[in-house]
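FORM 7B - TANDEM STRUCTURE REPORT

SECTION 1: FIRST PROTEIN
SEQUENCE AND TOKENS:
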Amino acid sequence: MYGELYQYFILYKQLNVPGVGTFLMERTPATGDFPNKQILPATFAVSLQQATVSPSKHFFNWLSAALNISDREAVIRFNDFAFDLKKQLSAGSKIVWDGIGTISKGLGDEFRFEPDATKFTFDSPVTAEKVIREKSEHSVRVGEDEKTSAEMREYFNQPEEKKNYWWAAALAVGILLIIFIGWYFSEHGMKASSTANGQKLTPVTSGDTYKPL
């Protein structure tokens, strides 16, 4: 019956075995393989939960069809299988279930489970290449306005205007002039005479410009 139960588990990804536990197929999300430019599909691994749920009527209908027996006989044979499996495990036997894993006795009434190293994959890798659309346009929020990406590229690609720094030269000349004036008055004082010509003037006596009669 191991083979038939394995088929059911692969189809429905869950198998309840009374007295042993519930086998589940856990999904690992798809991953990106960027060096090879592809996306690897999701994988599945088997786990065992100690809590068990009684198999559904759908399970026994499927099992009876797979074994070509009546539903009543399917119930009896499955219960015998579960009972015998638990008995072997409780006695210390190690059960190797191909495709599922290895089951052995653990602490107390629990069983230890080592899943099969094989991971299930139901899809194929997908090619994934990064697409760069250099000229594609989209809306860009700029403050309260909305502009297109083309308008923003044009704005940032505008040639930078050459700045005129004539005022800096004028400011430097003004500062030098102020410094010079300050130095001048510190050397000559603040009197009005300090700014006048200090040379003494001597009157020139002219000769007679007329003769007496």
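SECTION 2: SECOND PROTEIN
SEQUENCE AND TOKENS:
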Amino acid sequence: MTQQEIQLIKSSWILLQKMDPVLIGDAFYSKLFLEAPQIRTLFKSSRLEQAHKLISTLSVIVHQLEKSDHLTHAVEQLAIRHVHYGVKPEHYGLIGDTLLWTLEKLLKDNWNDDLHQAWTTCYKILSETMITTAHPPVTLI
């Protein structure tokens, strides 16, 4: 990620942190379960608890964007936990689309093409790391 993309994400995160985490979580999970009701069973926590987990995870990611070694380790650990929840590689695209939709709706006039691209790049890096960690490619000898 470029320094500009990191700064865009951090600036947008400052705005999001001023919002009620329940609102953010409700927007995200309502959209996610509307698009893919079958994955609702992967979420064992209450909506409130899940909203707080979402915000906490995003906060860790945003605050470690410039510390790639720390971030990579945190994301790898997250990936391992998600395997135990039943998350599959095909879920990551849906989660990414839902996250971008949620950010756009909540940030309203503060959302623009550059911010969209920054968050897209960030999520792509994170999801690729998680998928590779959780589901390493099989090497044939």
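SECTION 3: OBSERVATIONS ON SECOND PROTEIN
The longest helix spans residues 113-134.
DSSP finds six helices and no strands in the chain.

SECTION 4: SIGNATURE
Preparer initials: ____
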